[in-house]
Amino acid sequence: MTGTTLRDRAILRISGEDARSFLQGLLTRDVPGLKEGEPRWTGLLTPQGKALFDFILWADGDDVLIDCEGSQADALAKRLTLYRLRRKVTIAREEGLAVHWSLDAADRPLDPRLPALGHRWLAAPEEGDASPAFRAHRLSLGVFEGAAELGQDQTLWLETNAEELHGVDYDKGCYVGQENTARMHYRNKVSRRLIAVPLGEADEKRQRAALPDLGLSIELRRVEGLDPAALPGWLAAAIGERAAG
Prior knowledge:
This protein is α+β, with helices and mostly antiparallel strands. The chain has helices at 19-24, 73-84, 131-140, 146-150, 178-186, 233-244; strands spanning 9-15, 40-45, 51-60, 63-69, 90-93, 98-102, 119-123, 192-198, 207-211, 216-222. The strands form three sheets. It has a five-stranded antiparallel beta sheet with strand order 2-3-4-1-5.
């Protein structure tokens, strides 16, 4: 039994009267409108618009819970603390909760990136570890996450397919990296994309991560010349619609 707990994830609680306005000025998704049971995938970027951390936001009353990569939780908390300044915000680990995942939990929220990823929720940790199963399923759909796959300060947020995976709002106020991200969107200048290719077809110059256990190579490749058949269906459809429009 693998259970439902994703043991490679951690949760940070952002609380205090300035919590939501604080995050609103930093992240790619709108935070004040975050509602319970409606998680949002978002990113914390460099000023140039490159991915530093990606994570999922959950509302808990006025607090915001950050469902993040466990190995990066302390680094993320430290980065957020640097931005806090004198705001009335507390950033702390939420030890009593864990992230859960299942393909068969219709009463739970869907993953905010892609419905095919399955259902995701927060609850007390249970026995077992569903992390390997979720990772294999996620990568089979061509959805990437975390420092190893996205690359920290290496990949522009829109190159991670963030727009297609609902990871950016264009009608919110300014945030770190907003200027370049918005420019790329409105000028349709996303010239490269993260994709997964068979490991035997890997190009080390473009490679972000090699995954021998799954026989995959995650690479940043130019959109021009990409074979639509090599793309996950959701991404090929989105690129096709944009080109047609």
